[in-house]
Amino acid sequence: MINRAEIFIVKKIVNMKNNEEVTKNNLIRLYYGYFNDACTSRSIAYSYCKSLDNYKSVAPRIWELYKKFERNLLLIYDKSKKFHNKWEMNEEKLCFYLKYWIYDQLISKKVTKTEYANFWNLWDMRKSEICPTCNCEFKIKNLSNLIQLKKAYDYYLFLDAYKKTSKINDQISDKNYCKYIEDSKVVYSSFEYTCEKDPAEYCKEFKENNLPRIDEEDYDSISCQSDLRHEPISERGI
Fold this sequence. Notes:
The protein is mainly alpha-helical. 56% of the residues lie in helices and 0% in strands. The two termini are 17 Å apart.
């Protein structure tokens, strides 16, 4: 079963008090500023989503998510859309941010292996028609591998913001998702070494993103307190 802390990690990060370093990350800004916007029927709006005729292979409960996914890709790669945001315009970085968003959404909705496969099968079928210029590739077909990669990306948010494990520990040691971030650090560290020779798609993606390595002199660990403080319901996003 997926850890509940894993499902709502983005909202937990955003709502962390005294955590401006993380919430300044462009990934978080784009997540809520554009990617997660509800679909609208107004074609001139950034949030406009095309109607789909052949999406019935995707589970009805994630139809809206699939439409948002296509919409977001077109915002990045369709130059006629004139997508402008004040945070990031580099297509490679936007691709990484979009991947984080869709991975987080699929995990939070607890998609099954079949739902996951059908989601990407539909995109593979539509890509050449909808966005032939899209260079953002989605090749991870194994849901379990994606969940592990998402864990690594969650730790990256903290590593990118605080640089040192001791600073991360100061922020989260008393939080109820501390153990999840502690485990995510283990995954991130393991990927740095196991992915050097592993040809699996999730390893290729991890390496292609050129994420910062954990400083070899950073010997500190994340030490979660035994009496962890639970976040209020409003901060869990439930």
